[in-house]
Amino acid sequence: MKLHHHHHHHSVNHGHHAHGTHAPHTTQAASTAAPTTAPTAPTATPLPHAATGASATGPAWCTLPAPGPEQSGPPAGQGLTKGNEFGANAIRTAGGYTIVAEGKDQAWSIYAPGQKPGDKPHTRIWGDPHVDEKDGTRWDFTNNSNFRLPDGTNISVTTTKLPGFGEGYKVSDSIDITNGFDHVAVTGLAQNKPVVGEMKTDGYGARARLEAEGAFVLGGDKSHVAWFKTDKGVVEGEITGAKMEGNAYQQTVNKESTYAVDPSLQPKVGSQAWGNMMRDQAIDVARDVFGKGSVITEITAFGAAVDHVEKNLEQQLAPLMERFSNFFTLLSRSMNLFDLFGMKQNRHAFMAS
Amino acid sequence: MATAKTRALKRPGPKVAARALPADVKKTLEGLGVPIKPWDPKRIEAVLRGHLTLGELAGVSKQQQFEMAATGVKFLKDGLVDKAVQVFLGLEALDPYDAYVQVCLGSVAMEKELFEVAEQRFSRALTLNPFSVPALAYRGEVRLRVGKVKEGREDLEAALKADPAGKQPPTPRARALLEAQSAADKKPKVQARR
Q: Taking CB atoms and an 8 Å cut-off, how many pairs form between chains A and B?
């Protein structure tokens, strides 16, 4: 039963404090307002279509669909696309990166947004496997690894040992690329016969179950390529080279180099690709912190089967949410969190576009 | 030793310093039962850089956020609008990149006749998810209500196009609005002459 007595569509406009009367000076009152804009008097032109049935159906929220990943972000098919001017073995990410399986030297290359066929790749991974950065830096790795691009795309490379290779020397065998819901595998790299597989929509789940020893995160800008080595999501430093230790290459890092990525290499804040990036990274963090296959990781991966126990959600969740809301309001106000480091990105994200 | 490359990366980077909470805030947080423990500065930095959401920092999974959103919608439908808003604001803090939360807040603004705010919220939702049928349908409705007939029609038509089978709850409403608008457009405009 509806308890809320809402304003009728055709009621007289009561001005900008309509409904603010409950709590005009609380955060709640400002709540629905876009943070940048003080609630202004609506330009309440009377409906030209006074006869619409809509007003009789009640508030719009009566027709809100249930929450879920398909409402929260772009659907499958928008994260990765196959085939473009780089050829049939090229995959374009939502943020404009292009990953190309070359079919020679067990190589696959990453092109930055705006790069064209024939340009020197932003990063080329080839041989046993060497990583050639566009600006000249070279390093190596041995075992399965993750390469994460600034738009949230993850490239999980599986390496394999070729006959005759010494201990610690492997080549790229396949790469699994995920962005948002989308997931595509490229196999046959070791044989120099790459095959781009079917586009699947298990991106979130696949990402949560990734198994890899290291993660390399791309930073820098269009001229200066900078891959950073991370451990459990924490950046160790910028990779400057590698040396063989034990039976695997270990990357050497410059710990003084702070992770930074030029905005031109990142999706525009608020864009569709940016949304994918945020969600992808959330899963990476869950996996890194709680471990592959953990319940938390599986739950975080959208679409994971979760036993949803219908309990009294109202009683359980409302106090929790209230707590979070108060907590973050307090935190951001008292610590001025979003200005603390002079970083404006998140603040912009809160603003109306 | 700084190379040309590392120099290029030297930006006025974040200086992460341990910072004590003000006493009153600390007291309030303790009162709320929020555990006060120092977060890894690197993870806070990651939040500020947009690499992590607060939800991830606080350990609230996306699935939990969906459940909370469902509770918010339930509050709305029960008429507990202020409680619902609080839930949605909390969710927005946890994940400002979630289009659904923006749609929910927009629908509240629309009902409060804060049409400009509602339009902004729906537009933001569409930036985050250009395929959001409710955002298209509701923004179309708001635009019609403030007299932006052409834009409103375009939004409603886009909503119908995005959900041709009418599977999503807002679609029938959008269709009804569009039909009503078409009928209104056909009526002779007698008011023009006085």
A: 366
What are residue A169's phi and psi, to 5 degrees? -115, 120
Task: Judge if A278 and A316 occupy the same domain.
Answer: no
Residues of A in contact with B139 (CB under 8 A): none
At B30, give phi and psi (nearest 5°): -60, -40
Residue B61 in this model has a pLDDT that exceeds 80: no
pLDDT in tens, B108-149: 999 999 999 999 889 878 766 767 899 999 999 999 999 999
The predicted structure's pLDDT at residue B101: 92
Question: What's the whole-number mean pLDDT along residues B52-72?
Answer: 73
Task: Look up the domain containing A198 and give its range.
Answer: 80-284
* Nearest Cβ partner for A48 among B15, B105, B184: B184
Contact A43 B116 (CB under 8 A): yes
The order of strands in the sheet holding A130-133 is: A80-84, A87-93, A98-101, A108-111, A123-126, A130-133, A138-140
- Sites in chain A below the pLDDT cut of 70: 1-57, 73-75, 180, 204-214, 232-234, 258-353
Q: Which of A37, A65, A296 sits opposite B168 (nearest CB)?
A: A65
Chain B residue whose CA is closest to A236: B42
Domain B31-185 has CATH 1.25.40.10: yes
Q: What pLDDT, on a 0 to 100 scale, did the predictor assign at position B152?
A: 96
pLDDT tens readout for residues A316-350: 334 444 444 444 444 443 333 333 222 233 333 33
Instruction: With respect to residue A243, please indicate whether it lies within any of the assigned structural domains.
Output: yes
Q: pTM of the prediction?
A: 0.51
Which of A37, A64, A271 is the closest to B73 by Cβ? A64
- Whether residue A40 is contained in a domain is answered as no
CA-CA-CA-CA dihedral for A124, A128, A129, A132, to nearest 10:
-40
pLDDT at residue A290 in the model:
45
Is B129 in Cβ contact with A67 (below 8 Å)? no
Q: State the alpha helices, DSSP H only, in B35-169.
A: 41-48, 54-58, 62-77, 81-94, 99-111, 115-128, 133-145, 149-162
Of chain B residues 110-139, which have a CB less than 8 A from chain A? Answer: 110-118, 120-121, 123-124, 127-134, 137-138
Give the torsion sign (CA, A221, A96, B94, B140). Answer: positive
| pLDDT tens, residue by residue, B67-79 | 888 888 988 998 9
Q: Does B162 touch chain A (CB under 8 A)?
A: no
Task: Spell out which residues of chain A touch residue B89, defining contact as CB-CB under 8 Å.
Answer: 27-28, 31, 325
Is B73 in Cβ contact with A61 (below 8 Å)?
yes
Q: Which of A76, A304, A75 is nearest to A201 (CA)?
A: A76
Total structural domains within chain A: 2
Per the domain annotation, does A216 fall within a domain? yes
Answer yes or no: do B104 and A260 touch at CB < 8 A.
no
